[in-house]
Amino acid sequence: MNGNQFWQLLEPEHAKAQRFCRRLTGNLEDGDDLYQDGLLTALRKIDSLRDPGALRPWLYRILINGYKNRFRSLRRRQEEVSDESIMIEHAHDPAGELTARRWLDRAFAALKPDEIALVTLFELEGWTVAELAASFDRPDGTIKARLARTRRKMRHEIEKYLAPKQPPPVTMRKAGYALPQDQE
Prior knowledge:
It contains nine helices and no strands. The chain is mainly alpha-helical and 184 residues long. The chain has two domains: 1-80, Orthogonal Bundle (Rna Polymerase Sigma Factor, Chain: A); 94-163, Arc Repressor Mutant, subunit A (Orthogonal Bundle), CATH 1.10.10.10. The relative contact order is 0.09.
């Protein structure tokens, strides 16, 4: 397959794949960078695509692998960034978007890159379980189970922030009586 054929096959998927990258990374610039890098990788590896009908899962696998590589290096860099600089970076966002983004960031922080890609493709991009199964090379049941586990992880992570903080128990003495833990 040559470059012209690649671009013809890519045309119907172009906007969707670019939007997927933007959603995956959380912003336009990083998403466009990821998409461009993925296209360059796809062009270099175009000879490995045996079935032109399988372009979509093949391309998304390249994009997800590129995201996983970026995710690893981003996590290392984020450990070096202070919370104060993150607050300053988001200070210009509208309040509602900022709050929603924080909740998503908290939920996504608990996930692995594959899980983020899976949820993004299913929930935001509208992929079916069958399409995900073909792309991830797993049975439908495995994809359903991974989606359920991933949603549960996200819910648990958010619930940690919503649960009321319980003060430590206070030991009180009744008038004239010592509590059992004081008797030793």
